[in-house]
Design goal:
Blueprint: H1 2-19, H2 23-36, H3 38-54, H4 58-79, H5 86-107, H6 115-146, H7 148-166, H8 182-188, H9 191-218, H10 224-252, H11 255-276, H12 279-307, H13 313-338, H14 342-362
Helix pairs in contact: 1-6, 1-7, 1-10, 2-5, 2-13, 3-5, 3-13, 4-5, 4-7, 5-13, 6-7, 6-10, 6-12, 9-10, 9-11, 9-12, 9-13, 9-14, 10-12, 11-12, 11-14
Length: 364
Amino acid sequence: MMVAGEAALAVSLADSLFLSISPDAARSKVLLFLAFSFAPFIVLSKGISPFLDRVPGGRRMTVFIVGLLRACVVLAMTRYLQSLALFPLAFASLILAKVYQVSRSAMTPTVVSGDNELMAANGKFGRLTGIVGFLAGGPAVLLQKINPNLSLVMSAVAFVFAATMTLKLPRHVAAVTSKASRAEREEMSAPEIIRAGVAMSSLRATGGFMMLHLAFWLRNEKAGLAWFAFALAVGSASTLLANSIGAPLTRKLNHHTILVSSMIVIATVGIVSALVGSITAGIVLAGVVNGFGAIGKLAFDSIIQQHAPDANRSRVFAQYETRNQLFQVAGGLLAVLFVPSGAVGFAFVGAYAAIATAYYAFKY
């Protein structure tokens, strides 16, 4: 349900932040709250996140509170939709979304009994994310056309429902009672894990860049909101497909091969999309970035499980998710900072993925 709330909120903010005000105003405001969103991550990773790991039920209650706070923030947006107060509210919503995503990554390993179940759970969650995101996008656009407040109300209802579902989880989820052992630290410093972490961060950076690049570029096109909603739907559908085939792939193919292949595909499609330069090419690229980002995530999780058997999954996944979220925000920051044309933005995605591929293949 968090995904449904995210989809409805994305549609509403796309209309309010990108289509209802001047391009320069949209750029400056979005750039501001993206820039400031780095600070909470530093606090989250250095102080709050380790504390929540040690408290029984800490992650569960975090997600519960985040759901309620997101609902309150979204409802406040209905009052200030045409006001400058919308921007700090959107900023607060962004931070809460990142806290949820880090906590979700920490909780998942603790509600399954083993690594095989963890992979199945990640794949299942990815499929549900794709389905819900795809199904929620259409009604959100329809409600937005009727009344901009209605899509926000839909988002708030979804967040409240997601918060109540969190209370069904056991209190022990994500609790980490000890510090990292020497064996865990040695395993996590292995070259295989380091380069896999760089690759995963690169995939997330391209995802963050494409999201805001399309949002700003499509605002100048006819039916910009409809195109952006369609891009979100394609991204959700590609995530669904990727998680459906990703788990079998990770069992049959080398995990490093999957990661490097994902980056090669993104690099290739990015360059081809730049040469074509059309809206359709951009939406296809967004789908490819989302889909292969999801497959890469499954491969990365498998690499952690294979090369760090002594590591605490909850702590490790929370640490990497925090870093990946930073890279995703950084990618979005670049898109807003430079606001490239469609073709230039696609070329940037292709070039960045190619550089990341070269690093992954030849660094170690």
